[in-house]
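Holo model, guanine. Inputs:
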Amino acid sequence: MARLLDGKAVAAEVRREVARGVDAFVTAHGRRPGLDVVLAGEDPASQVYVRNKEKAALEVGIAGRVHRLSADVSQAALLGLVAQLNADAAVDGILVQLPLPPGIDSLAVLDAILPAKDVDGFHAESVGLLWSGRSGLVPCTPRGCMRLLAEAGASLAGARAVVVGRSNIVGKPMAALLLGAHATVTIAHSRTRELPAVCREADVLVAAVGRARMIGRDWVKPGAIVLDVGMNRDESGRLCGDVDFADVEPIAGALTPVPGGVGPMTIAMLLENTLLAARARALAGARGA
Ligand code: GUN
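Output:
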């Protein structure tokens, strides 16, 4: 029977830590850390995510603001808003919610964000810092996964880790973090040959493919730690992960549920990234940088 990795409880602990850090920041600097979220268009899932991010920010004392733009916003207008937020001293973190409407060059918008305010960790400079083992802002979902692995007491040095999924948001940064923790890392994806056998090698298996209940018990090494990043709807509209929970639970060593596993960690880590960005900016300001 797998140990359940309770992301909801760990996320609540992270939020309490961030709230204490925010209080100390306000005392030291006389202002609240600021997080500005840009939402373009009416994607229903994005609207829910953004509302949750704003609410979570306000709950820990971060000044959260959402900039809602219509789906037909121009690239120039989006870049103009990002430039304005870059220049605003009260803004510590900028998050542009993805996906952006068709016709917008997402990478150009992400690369327009000042790296010091890049709380998503998607800027090319943040990506380069992560892969070269230097400190920068790190994407929220993979950071949340690392925190859950720490809570699970995973010993990553020398362990075999398989990340299924190669997105810029989860798969690639997750692989970089596991590598940084001295795991032997494989990035697998939908075109990987003999995918179940590859996954079965893993001491740590991270599923981030977006296919409902794809990973069954014969994909999992007995005792493995399994993190499920998937957020899918099954045929009956129920929220489910990439892992077939009921099938895998009897043989995994530890497993995240969906919902209540990795999901809550993403927002908690966004709040933590905002506090880290605020502290780093305050320090750079004090140095006159
Ligand atoms: N869309 C889905 N996940 C994310 C995320 O982590 N950050 C942003 N900006 N957009 C997303």
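The first strand starts at residue 3 and ends at 4. The two ends are 53 Å apart (CA to CA).
Archived with the compound record.
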